[in-house]
Specification:
Mean pLDDT is 81; it is low at 1-11, 242-255, 275-291 and 312-335. It contains 19 helices and 14 strands. The strands form three sheets. Strands 4-5-11-10-9-12-13-14 form an eight-stranded mixed β-sheet, with helices on both faces. Strands 1-3-2 form a three-stranded mixed β-sheet, with helices on one face. It has helices at 17-31, 64-85, 88-97, 104-126, 131-155, 158-171, 186-193, 202-216, 237-240, 262-276, 325-336, 364-394, 414-417, 452-468, 508-512, 522-534, 560-573, 590-600, 613-629, and strands at 37-41, 45-47, 52-56, 338-339, 351-357, 399-403, 407-408, 424-427, 436-443, 473-480, 490-498, 540-547, 576-582, 604-606. It starts with 16 loop residues before the first helix and ends with a helix. Strand 2 (45-47) and strand 3 form a beta hairpin. It is elongated, with a radius of gyration of 32 Å. The chain is of the alpha/beta class and 630 residues long.
């Protein structure tokens, strides 16, 4: 669905999908957590329930190298620092200690700032290669706090100004002259803060914070106005201890065990989410107990009792005559839907999909249109097919060398060098068939409505060319049913216009019968077609995607671009070439080209107008078939 031309362009910023995947994989490797996911938010933070970490937007709008090193420092700090070297139990005790304190936010963020200082030094010693990234981080953060110090002090935000001052003295020098005139015992406070340089644990940093708070709590009345750190926000009693389901709130509870590290917290939530994914039966008892049931809800059996409710399953052998035709239809529809597995990615955990054959509408309009379009295509297809066949015939015959019999090779040094020489070769018989297979995905979202005929025309040419060359191919539209999509289930449909099994069968009328629907979930569609292509024996596998914009589906707007890029990279890694054709009625903008480059790399083409769809399709086919011929 087209969502590219926004009025407020500065609100439409996206991080490069390739770079984000790079940071994500680096974070997974450093944390030894293959489930970890990466996003971007205002501050760098942790999200145990979602199994993710966030980079800070602080590094945007800077030179590319600075942005890259800044984001790397976020990844290093969270996955190699906080991940296993920050005490969760000490943090929770500390939060409870300052829960009612008037400087609660200052105390918490001061501790996180001191821990950042300690862990930057710790990670730098463990991994010297991180030094450059941390140096850039320190330099830019010092500049930020220098700018904020005077501003906050003039506004009377003394807690914020003190936070700025402590950061400057910790990372620059304890003897740095302050830019403001404090009415606090600033020298004694900085002296206490200097103890952080010798601290080796979270508990020791807490002692430093407690001493500083003791010195300022009667002087500074107002808490922090701005937020500087969000790492600890999601580490609470709820996320760091054993959590119960809604049904257990009033029930007897078992032992509580606080996790020691962020690594343990994340892994606990990951296991919980994995075990609860999918559809399960719900029981009132959700936590086991060793003991007897009280039997208070037991009732005596009564053979004369009336049946109050009937349940029916999806077993094919259960055919009750009491079912209505409508119930039969609904059950058949449910059976036809398939659930996504783990191989389709976390973004599509609640997707169910259906593979429908597009019914050919054999009315007079479609028949006339089909004949007219094919008549227009005939000269182009004829010359194209002849060109491909000549290329096959003129292809240099491959040789098998090192044989015991056959034609004598002109290179006879093997007779002198080898103990058992094999100086013969044979030519392979050129094949009259192309060792290639194609899959074509056509965006079935509503935004394709204004260019539907031109799209059908291009797809028809694709079908006719490959049919005449006897190249196996499959054509399918893809869309998400937005009217029935919910948080629990997102129904997707693939409209099959031509399948691999149909080989050279003419499905022109099915292509002309394809209609648009609602949303598009590109990453899921690419993985679906990739699975079908991988089941084919052909050596050269090509996947073409015809779409007119960025992905858009239920809960997919934020991560759609990244997920699509990941799906393309997975396909390419498994030997499938993914090519994208942008279908638009006008010249694509620079922002659009950049977006498609993020998703599909350098294998994205664009047509300048709807009339060029067919020509562009032919050009792409020529290049791909030339690759297959060799």
């Amino acid at each position: 669905m087209v969502k590219l031309n926004r009025f407020i362009q500065f609100n439409d910023e996206t991080i490069d999908a390739n770079q984000l995947l790079l940071y994500e994989r680096l974070g997974r490797a450093l944390a030894d957590a293959p489930f970890l996911e990466l996003t971007e938010r205002k501050l760098f933070e942790l999200q145990p329930k979602e199994g993710g970490i966030s980079l800070s937007v602080f590094w945007r709008h800077r030179p590319n190298e600075i942005t890259h090193l800044g984001r790397l420092s976020d990844v290093y700090l969270m996955t190699a620092g906080f991940w296993k070297n920050f005490s969760v139990s000490d943090w929770l005790t500390f939060r409870r200690q300052y829960e009612k304190h008037h400087l609660r936010k200052f105390a918490e963020e001061l501790l996180l700032m001191l821990e950042e200082f300690r862990l930057m030094d710790f990670v730098g010693k463990q991994r010297p290669g991180t030094g450059r990234a941390f140096s850039v981080r320190r330099q830019l953060m010092l500049q930020f706090h220098h700018d904020r110090l005077v501003s906050n002090f003039k506004k009377g935000f003394y807690a914020d100004a003190l936070m700025n001052q402590l950061f400057i003295n910790l990372h620059d020098s304890m003897f740095t002259q302050s830019a403001v005139e404090w009415e606090l015992p600033i020298e004694q406070i900085l002296l206490r803060a200097s103890y952080a340089t010798d601290a080796t644990s979270t508990s020791q940093m807490i002692d430093v914070v407690n001493r500083i708070i003791f010195m300022i709590e009667e002087v500074i009345e107002g808490d922090l106005i701005h937020q500087y750190y969000a790492v600890g926000d999601s580490i609470s009693d709820e996320t760091a201890t054993f959590h119960y389901h809604d049904g257990m709130k009033d029930a007897e509870k078992g032992e509580q065990e606080v996790k020691e590290t962020i690594d343990e917290v994340f892994r606990t939530w990951h296991r919980e989410n994995e075990s609860e994914s999918g559809v399960h039966l719900e029981y009132e008892l959700e936590h086991g107990r060793a003991g007897r049931g009280d039997g208070s809800n037991a009732t005596e059996g009564n053979e004369n009792a009336e049946i109050q409710e009937i349940g029916t399953g999806q077993s094919e052998g259960n055919e009750s005559e009491q079912w209505s035709d409508e119930e039969h239809e609904q059950t058949d529809k449910k059976i036809g839907q398939k659930k996504t597995g783990k191989e389709f990615g976390k973004e599509h955990a609640h997707v169910v999909f259906e593979e429908k054959v597009v019914e050919a509408v054999s009315d007079e309009t479609n028949k006339v249109k089909l004949l007219r379009w094919r008549e227009e295509h005939k000269p182009y297809i004829r010359s194209f097919v002849e060109e491909m066949k000549k290329r096959i015939e003129l292809k240099e015959d491959a040789r098998r060398t090192g044989l015991a019999k056959g034609r004598l090779s002109p290179k006879l040094t093997t007779l002198l060098v080898d103990e058992r020489p094999r100086p013969f070769y044979r030519k392979n018989i050129p094949s009259d068939k192309l060792d290639a297979v194609f899959g074509l995905l056509v965006d079935g979202s509503a935004s394709m409505m204004d260019k539907l005929d031109e799209t059908k025309k291009a797809v028809l040419m694709f079908h006719d060319v490959l049919r005449q060359l006897s190249v196996p191919h499959e054509i399918s539209s893809y869309y998400e049913d937005a009217n029935h999509a919910t948080k629990e289930v997102q129904p997707n449909v693939f409209g099959l216009m031509h399948t691999f099994m149909e080989q050279r069968q003419d499905n022109g009328l099915s292509i002309l019968s394809f209609e648009t629907n609602e949303d598009n979930r590109d990453g899921f569609a690419i993985r679906w077609m990739s699975r079908r292509l991988l089941a084919r024996p052909e050596k050269n596998k090509f996947l073409l995607v015809f779409s007119d914009g960025e992905p858009s589906a239920f809960g997919y707007d934020r991560n759609g671009v990244l997920d699509t890029r990941e799906a393309v990279m997975e396909a390419e890694k498994r030997g499938i070439s993914v090519i994208h054709l942008f279908l638009a009625s006008e010249e694509p903008t620079d922002d659009q080209r950049e977006l498609f480059s993020m998703m599909f790399g350098n294998k994205s083409a664009a047509s300048h107008s709807v009339e060029n769809f067919t020509d562009q399709t032919l050009r792409i086919l020529r290049k791909l078939l030339a690759i297959a011929i060799g």
